[in-house]
User: What shape does this take?
Amino acid sequence: MRDDLREKGKNIVKKRGYGLKISIRTVPDKELIRMKIAGIIAEYNPFHSGHAYHIAQTRSAGATHIVAVMSGNFVQRGEPAILEKHARAEMAMRGGVDLVLELPVPWCCARAQDFARAGISLLHAMGCVDLLSFGSECGKTDLLLQKVEDLESPQMSACLRGYLDEGLSLPTAREKAAAQCLGDETASLLRGANDALALEYLRALRALHSPIVPLAVGRIGAQHDEAKSEGGFCSASHVRRLLLQNDVQWRESLPAPSAEILLREIERARAPISYRALEPAVLAHLRRLTPADFARLPDISEGLEYRLYDAARSAISLETLFDAAKTKRYTHARIRRLMLHAFLGITRESTAMSPPYLRVLGFNERGREILRRMRSTAKLPVVMRASDIRPLSAAGQYIYRLGASTTDLFALAMPKSRPCGMEQTENTVCIPNEKLTH
Assistant: This one.
C-alpha cells in the first residue's frame, strides 16, 4: 500500500501474500461505549447525491459510525454493477460511510426476500450494530413495523395463495392480496420499491430476533427507475443510462468525490461496465444448459426450467432472451435474475445458506473503531485478505471461490478486459482521516 495511506504511530499496514494485514489502533473503552453504529444495505451503483443525503440523515439521527453492506460486482436487477466493487466502496467512504462489507454474489443478485435476509444477517452477525437505516417512500418507521405484522397474518397468506393460483406474479399477487385483506394503505407500501424492500428488512429482523432498531429515512427526488423529479435527486438507473450513453450530464448527479473516482475508472478503461459486453458469453453458456441445470436455479417453480431452456435455445440477444421467457406470472426482473444465476453458476443451495463471513472492502479511521469493536462481538469470521479464507468452513470457501470466479467474468465486461485473478489482486480500500470529505 502507498506511503500516503499510512498513518504514523496509529496503525501498521503490511502487504502479505494476496492482501493486507492490519493492526487496528487502540481506542479507549469509553470511546467505544459512546459509539452508535448504523447499518445500511445498499448497492451504490453508483453512489449519488441521494445516497449522500441518506447518510447525512442517518448521522442526524444520532449515528456516530456507519457501516454499509454493499453488493459486490453484480446487482439485484440481474446484471453487472456499473463499476467494480472496490471503486464503489471508495465512493461510499468518500461520501460518509466508515466501513464497507460485501454482500456476496449469491445474494446480491437474488430476489428481494433473499437479498434482504442476507444483508440483515451480516449486520446482525457484526454484533454491534444499533440502527438499520433504509430509504423509504413513506418515511414512517412505525407504519412499516405495523404493516409487516399484518402482512404475515394467516389471512394475508391465504389470500396471497389464491392470487398466485390465478397465475399472477408474486409482486402483483401480494399487492392485490394486501388491498383486499389489509386495505389500500398497505397495498400502496408494496408499490414503492424502497418500502417493499424495507418490509423485507423488517421481516428479516423479526426472524432473527435482532436487537437492531429500524430507522426509515424518507426518500426525496426521483423514484426507482425514474429520471429526476422536481427539486430532487436523479435515480441511480438514470445515472447509469447517462453513463452508457456517454452523456456528461451524469456528473451533475454525483458528489464531487464520486465523480472523481468514476472519471479515474473511466480513464483506466475499468468503467462503465456494460452487460452487452458479456452478451455472447451469456448466450453461449445458456445454450449448453439442460432443463435439469435450469431446475437447480434459485426461485424455480412449476416447470419454469423448460421455459428458460426453450428461451435460451431460441434467443439471439439478451433482450429477446428475457422477452421469450417473460409471462404475466414470471416478471422481466425475475427472468433477468434467473438467467444471470445460470450464467454465474448460482444454485438454490447457495442462496438458501446465510453469508458465512464478513468480507471487508474498505474502511476509514472510524471504520477501524468498528472493526475493533467487532473483535469481541462478531459472530462470523472477518475476512480482510485472501489468506483469511483458508481457515473458513467448507461453505465459506465455496462462497469465496464462487465470488472469485464471477469476478473473473465481470472483468470481461470492462471496456478493457482484465485477466483472471482480480479477486486476489484488488486491495482493501483504506482512507486516512485527512482524505475524508465528511
Q: What stands out?
A: The first strand starts at residue 12 and ends at 16. The CA atoms of residues 127 and 377 lie 5 Å apart. Residues 1-28 have pLDDT under 50 and may be disordered.
